[in-house]
Amino acid sequence: MAALQIGVDGIEVDVQSALDDYMIIHDTWLDRTTNGVGKVCNFTAAHIMQLNAGNGEKVPTLQQLFDWNNNQTLLNLELKHTFNLEQFAAQVEKNITEKRISADNILVSSFDHHQLAWLKKRLPWLKMGALTSSIPINYAKFAEDLGAYSVHVDKNFINKTFVDDAKQRGLIIYAYTVDKQQDIKLMLDLGVDGIFTNYPAQTKAYLGD
């Protein structure tokens, strides 16, 4: 809610598979961010939603995220430990058909480029972000080959050549996770199109937005 109130350009979340649904949670294991124990994929959504994720907060499902956002801003859905992509694709399509979100407000990213390739065939219109924590030999070619909309790069593995190469290939380039002012300035100097940050209010204030 706070992110929407300060007017962010988008919200990035991590999607993990439960036994019967998709959950919005960063870790593959429940132990660090909830009072549960075990892997997310070994429990039902109903069980996970009973856990305390801190201050009485609950772990939401993907559908609850769609409902809550109500097309107010872009959702970057990063596929982490996810299975049954047909179910995921069908759920995305259903929410677009029912006008809970527009196609322009969905960006699906992953380090698993095989999943991105499958999704691009299933949903050719889908905006995809190819994640990397390296500077590949051919720079952003891997993202272009996937038909990606954007390439998402680790702030510690980026240079001007990488940025320029991505743009020459028609890709948007985003850097993650950029919280320090010195790093924000460096990313701007390199020419990235946007950054992911844990502190959007501070970052917007620094940028003068």
Automatic annotation (TrEMBL):
Keywords: Hydrolase. Pfam families: GDPD (PF03009). It is an enzyme of class 3 (hydrolase). GO terms for biological process: lipid metabolic process. Gene3D superfamilies: Phosphatidylinositol (PI) phosphodiesterase. Coiled coil: none annotated. GO terms for molecular function: glycerophosphodiester phosphodiesterase activity. Residues 1-207 form the GP-PDE domain. This is Glycerophosphodiester phosphodiesterase.
